[in-house]
Each structure stands twice: as C-alpha cells, then as structure tokens.
Amino acid sequence: MNYGEQNQNTVVISFNGKYWNDGTGIHSSIEGEGDEIKQYLYTQGESYHYNKVFPMFDQPNLKARLNFQVNCPKKWEFITNTGLKQSTETETTKILSFNETPLISTYLYGFVAGDYVEIDHGFEGFHNGLPARIFCRSVLKDYFKEKFNAF
Predict the structure, then answer these.
(1) Contact yes or no for 86/96 (Cβ under 8 A)
(2) Continuous segment of H or E residues that includes residue 44
(3) pTM as predicted
(4) How many other CB atoms are found less than 10 A from the CB of residue 138?
(5) What are the tens digits of pLDDT across the range 95-112?
(6) Is 25-120+128-149 assigned to CATH 2.60.40.1730?
C-alpha cells in the first residue's frame, strides 16, 4: 500500500474514552454547589497524552485536516482552534460543527468548553489585527476584568 502524497486517506472516528484525573488529555474542574454547579473543560495537548482526547497518530510526518463536531449543554461556551461553521440548538443542548483545520499534527487540536464568561477587552486584536477573545471562569469574572483593564 502506498501512502504517498498522491493518495488520499480518510479516517472517521467515533470515540468514547476513560476520563483520567491527572490533568492530561481533557481536564475538568467543577465549582459551586446545588443548582449553581459549573463545569470547565480544556485539553492538555501534549502529544503523549492527547490520545486520551481521541485516537490519533503520534508521528511527526503524519498530519491531518480535522473536522470537529460536538454536542454540549446549550449554556456552554465551546472554543476550538478553528471558527464555528454551524450551530443547531435543541431545548437543552447545542450541536456545534467547526471549520476544518489546516494540515496539522493531530495533537495540536485543542478546545475549551464549559461555563466560561467572555471578557470584553476592547481591542480589535493583539497581533496584526487578528481577532482575540478572552474567557475566564465565571467566578473570576470581576477579578479578571479588574486585572485585565490594568494593562
């Protein structure tokens, strides 16, 4: 079998994995109590641990274009390396489809999800006009805004 540049290979994955509480792969933190519980997720994308997020090739010469779709609670923010392509909402959830990545090592794909709050920082962008969005945990919103506005 020839895996050269002239050939195209497609891999479609549906994956359920074990959650590890060691801060690698997908990290989760929960705060609050009762009806006020909030959850925050983010990926820790070191190549050795990223296979805990989804099955991947950890080989420098194997790169892929990734298409990511997620079903998450309607109230959550969900941020990835690429922009949002499509969003469909149900009564309690939303299904988000994101734009395809450029050709990258699969462990470079990352996401942040949960009850995050976006901070309005008032800048058009930080570097050459690129858009910049800033998020923090909701309980830190006032503290973060105060510290960020000090810059």
Answers:
(1) yes
(2) strand 38-44
(3) 0.76
(4) 16
(5) 999 999 998 888 888 899
(6) yes
